[in-house]
Amino acid sequence: MNEALLRELVPEVIGVLVRRGAEFAAAEDAVQEALIRALETWPDDPPRDAKGWLIAAGWRKFLDAARAETSRRGRELAVEVEPAAGPVPSTDDSLWLYFLCAHPSLSPGSAVALTLRAVGGLTTRQIAAAYLAPEATMAQRISRAKKRITGVPLNQPGDLATVLRVLYLVFNEGYSGDVDLAAEAIRLTRQLAASTDEPEVSGLLALMLLHHARRASRTGSDGRLIPLAVQDRSLWDTVLITEGVEILQSALARDRLGEYQAQAAIAALHTDAPSTAETDWVQVVEWYDELLQLTDSPVVRLNRAVAVGEADGPRAGLAALTDLDPDLPRLTAARAYLHERAGVLEQAAALYAEAARVATNVPERDHLTREAARVRQLLRPAH
Amino acid sequence: MAKYLLLKHYRGAPASVNDVPMDQWTPEEVTAHIQYMRDFATRLAETGEFVSEQALAPQGTWVRSDGEGRPPVTDGPFAETKDLIAGWMIIDVDTYERALELAGELSAAPGAGGKPIHEWLELRPFYGAPPTVTE
C-alpha cells in the first residue's frame, strides 16, 4: 500500500468532515484514527475508492466520538446521517486547511507541527522524531494548537504569507528519522500550488526545488559542510533544477514579484553557473537589491554584501557590511571570508576563529574552525 | 549498568597536556579530531554503552528571578572566571572502571601535531533508581 498516496488524501478528508459539521479538532482526530484503520485493513481488503472509504471511516469515527460524549445526540446523528459510501464532492477543501493550520494566532513551532499532522498526514510519532522531541511533548503541542484555533471561522481567507513561512520552516528543518521534512515541505507546497493561483507559491516551490537539487553536494560523507565554491556540481539534480527554473519563469512572467520569487531567482543563477567564478554575480546583486526592497531584512543585507564582494571586490563587500547589527548570525563569518579575499590574512584567521565561537550549529562551527586553521597555516613561514 | 556523564569544558578544567588552541591546528588535524570523536560515539553505540551527547555553544547567560511581574535579571556571561561547559556525553556502562577507561580514551583525541590532547574530562555518576524492596 502506498502510504504517501494515503497522506495525500488527509487534508481533503478532514475538509469534507468539517464541511459536514465536525469541529476541526474532532475531524482531525477522527481522520487519524481512520488512517490507522486503513493501514491495518487495506493490505488485505483494498477499497475501490480510497477517498470515499476514508471519508466514510473518518465520519464513523467522528460519530463514535460524538456518541461517547453525548450518547443521545450521538444516536440521533447515527440514525440520521450514517454516511453513504460512493461519490464525494471533488472540490478541494485542503486550501483552507493550510490557512487554518498556519493561523497567525499560533506560534511558528505549533503551526509547523499542526500543518505536518493535519495537512501532511504524519503521525505524532513521526513529527516528534523529526524534531527530536519526546512524543508526549509533541502530542501536547499539537493538541494545544488545535484548542487555540477552535472556533476560528473557516470562510476567512487567511494569511498566505504565514502559510508560506510555515512551509519554508518545514523545509529548512531538513531531514531526520524516517521523514524527510524537506521532501515533505516540497510535497505540501506542490499541493498548495495546485490549489491556489498565486505567483509567490510558485516562487517558494521553485526555491525549494532549486535548494533541494543541491543537497547531495552540500555535505560530505563525514557530515562536514561543503561551501558552494567547492561543491561537486555534477551531484546537482538537473531534473529538479530544470523544473524549478521553469516554475520560476512562469511565476516571474506574471509580474507580481515577491520575496520567494526573488530568492528563487538568486538560487537559479547559482545553479546555472558552471563555477563560482563564472556566476553572474552582477545579476545576483541586482536580485538582492530587489529582495531588499521587498523585505529590508538584515540577513538579506548580509548575503547581498557577500555577493557584492564577488561582483565588485572584497573591499566593496566589506563596505556593504558596515551598519549591520554586530550580533547578526554569520556576520563575523562573512567578514572573515571577505578579509581573506582581500588578502588580510591575520585578521581573517582571527575572524574565522571568532565566527566559530559564535556559530549556531555544530557543522558550521567545525567548518569555521577548519577555515581558521587553514588561514593560520597560510600565515606560517614555509619549512 | 550505571550511567555516567562525561563533561567537556571550554574553560575551568586544568590545562591539557597538548594545549594548543584549535585554530592553530592544521585543517587536517581538526578533521582528525572530529572524526575521532565521531568514531568513539559510533563504537559505543555498537557496544550498547552510548546514551546521548550534545555540544553547547560558549555563549551562556546567568539568569535569576527579580520577583513577580518583573523581568528576570540577567548578567554575565562570567566566562573569564567561571567554568564553561562545552558539551557532554552520557554513557551507560557496567562498572566505574569501564567509565574511567572510556573517559581516558575520549581524552586522548588527537590535537595539534596529531598528538593526543590529554584534556581533562569530568566524570560524574548519575543517581540510580532506588532498589526494589520486594526483590
Descriptive overview:
Chain A: It comes from Nocardia tengchongensis. Chain A: Residues 160-251 form the DUF6596 domain. Chain A: Keywords: DNA-binding, Sigma factor, Transcription, Transcription regulation. Chain A: This is RNA polymerase subunit sigma-24. Chain A: Residues 98-149 form the RNA polymerase sigma factor 70 region 4 type domain. Chain B: It comes from Nocardia tengchongensis. The complex is a heterodimer of chains A (383) and B (135). Chain A has 383 residues and is an all-alpha fold. Chain A has a domain at 3-73. Chain A contains 20 helices and two strands. In chain A, helix 2 (24-41) packs across helix 3 and helix 14 runs antiparallel to helix 15. The longest helix of chain A has 20 residues, at 50-69. Chain A starts with a helix and ends with a helix. Chain B starts with a strand and ends in a 10-residue tail after the last strand. Chain B has a four-stranded antiparallel β-sheet. A two-stranded antiparallel sheet of chain B has the order 3-4. Chain B has 135 residues and is of the alpha+beta class. At the A-B interface, helix 19 and helix 20 of A face helix 1 of B.
